[in-house]
Amino acid sequence: MAEVSITLRIAGEPKSVAFTAPEEPVTPAELLPVFRQFSNAMVEAAEAKSPVSCRAGCGTCCRQLVPIREMEAAALAALVDAMPEPRRAAVRARFADAVERSALLRERLDARGALDRAGRVQLKLDFFALGIACPFLENESCSIHPDRPLICREHLVNTPAEWCADPAHHPIRALPIVRADTAVANLFEGGRWVPLIDALTYAPHSAAEPSAARPMVESFVRALISQAAE
Ligand code: SF4
What we know:
Elements: E1 2-10, E2 13-21, H1 32-49, E3 67-68, H2 70-81, H3 87-101, H4 106-110, H5 117-129, E4 137-138, E5 141-142, H6 150-154, H7 180-188, E6 194-195, H8 213-229
Antiparallel strand pairs: 1-2, 3-6, 4-5
Helix pairs in contact: 7-8
């Protein structure tokens, strides 16, 4: 193990991320906790700079079609597997219910990679219209907050909160932040995404080969820096 600390200057402010890099080869998925730390740093910097409308107890965006990464789907499936009963059974039942209630959209959900931008937007609107809550939403709050996907961390809205309930008529504006989610997708997964409701049944494209942790984290940080420069 090697202790690594990386300091990024985000919006003029230094933000340090410290983590333990394993010396032995790891898969990108094993670095997910590190990617989350960078994501948290980006989010903290963005929140300090601009006010956001998101508030605890507002779970409106948790009824959207939430696109997560393949490695996150596997992590969420493992998280649910490790839950004690009867919570595990309850969460699994909510996933099954979400999949069943979205059956009319299944063909488009499975063909999501072939949809053009307009098709993706329509799919998101049609999914939201079904009102299916994320299986992890409890009392309008995220029940897996420390383990939530990168996209959930990085979705910070600064349009009025009530607009989120009517995305067909109100364009929702999110803070322009440097996204760990995008860096992970482009670097390690060819831009693919998985609907969160499919996390427990998703079969990944292929298992990534383990390799040295440090170069992977360095590539990830370079991807963040190039996003910031765009
Ligand atoms: S994982 Fe948590 S934050 Fe993300 S959609 Fe589900 S309940 Fe909401």
